[in-house]
Amino acid sequence: MSGDRGPAVYRLLHWIRHRCVLPKSVFVPVLLAACAGPQSTLAPGGPAARIAADLWWGMFIVAALVLLAVVGLWVYALHRTPPDYDEAAQRRIGQRWIIGGGIIVPCISIVVLLAFGIPLGHRMLPLPVPGEPPLKIEVTGHQWRWEIRYPEHGIVGTDWLVIPAGRTIDFHVGSADVIHSFWVPRLGGKIDAIPGRINVLRLRADQPGQYRGQCAEFCGAGHAHMVLAVEVLDAAAFDGWLERHRP
Predict the structure, then answer these.
(1) Is residue 26 part of a domain?
(2) Which domain range does residue 186 map to?
């Protein structure tokens, strides 16, 4: 049976290649559709998300160059004329590839990545900053909802987060039951909500608008519906919102 399966697979691939080719005007937008939307990390709405997006693009470009180099070497190896076999020469060539491709290149790649990644990651930490202190918001994950508290104003809400644009926010994230993960993709990275522990995530939104958060850690049957609506207001509108909802 295995002898008949190969040609059948090749015929199927040939048919797909020649009969199921979409026009570029259709195919390219389909591929790019996943790069947009309310939870797109490639459409950053704040400095933390912008840092993550810049790092992603840098890694993507490097990975693409590595892929091109590997494919180029592969094509060259397929079409070159094999030299006369010399065991000593083959051993030397193999050693060069092991040392160069297996040690030197990976070490250089790791050093470059760390040189970019460590400073960028340091800028995302909730460190003391001069000027206006960050607004503190407490976020507690439940099965399956988000409890939002503004401790300085006595406001408590569920699945609805309102923050001011242009102001740094420190989210103190915890959990009342199992591990959840607090994530607003367009504003920054995610952080785990762990029972008995408080983790701090610093975010800031550049412009007023609507954003969407999602629990990013499987937490039970209702995980997929554990969504957080995020509304970013300008400073005056946010102050008015606080006054209207203050108990």
Answers:
(1) yes
(2) 135-245
